[in-house]
Each structure stands twice: as C-alpha cells, then as structure tokens.
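Protein entry
_____________
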Amino acid sequence: MNKVVLMGRLTRNPDIRYSQGERATCVARYTLAVDRRFRRDDGQNADFISCVAFGRQGEFAEKYLKQGTKIAISGRIQTGSYTNREGIKVYTTDVVVEDQEFAESKAASQNNGGGSYGSYDDRAAAEPAGHDAPAARPTPVEANGADSGFMTIPEGIEDELPFI
C-alpha cells in the first residue's frame, strides 16, 4: 500500500499551471514544511516535501492555499526521472495529493499559528443549538498566561470522559 499523510505549512504560494489540450487540467505544485519530532544533529527540524495536486485538488490549491497556510494532506508517493538540459538524469519524489484540508482556523492561519491550534470560540459557534456542549470552552493558555497551544483541563473532568 502506498499511502502518505502529512501536516505542515506551505513554504510559498502554489505554482499553478494548466495542461495543454482539449480538456485542460489544473496542476498545482507546492512544498510542505513538515515539523520533525526530534531535531537532527545538523539542527534541521523540518522536512520539505514536494507535493503535486491535479484537477479539482489543484483548483482548490489555486483558490485557497497560500504561503504559511497549515494543511493536512493524504496521498501517495510517486517517483520519476527526467534528463535536464545539461544531459544529467534527475530523479524526483513527489506526494500526489488525493485529499487536502485546512489544519487550523482562519484566525490562527492569519497569525501563522502562533502556537494555537484553532479557535475554540469558532467551534462553539458552529455547534447546533441544543447540543450538549459545555457552557464555556477553555482557551489554550498556560498557567503563566503564555499561549502554549494546549488548553487547561478543568478539575473533575475525568468523570465525564467516556473513554477513560
């Protein structure tokens, strides 16, 4: 099975082209910076993955994606090769995007993440009326007031969680 799932930020705006012919197809190419769990000896803490999206996925990239946008993609790895103008054979590895979606809220995206993983208020507003949601949602703030990306869990919540 050839399946890849990645989450990262676009390093630049997608490069958009259309194929030639009667049924022109959108081809979007972009590079995704994917954080590593651990830092390498050379100090690099991200991998830069080449991605290509065709057709409707390419059109989505053209319309909505821009540098800094955090997205989650799934697809497959595709390798290839070509001979460049100097006569040297070049090998390529790309992720062919099958599905892509935003990985953070619009507000967080405008701040380039900043350690926040979405707006809890946006989610609360999107829930249908009558949903058994908590009255107030905690915000992702550390005890010292710094934004850590993790929300403070209220005391006694363990009794209400169905999976413990």
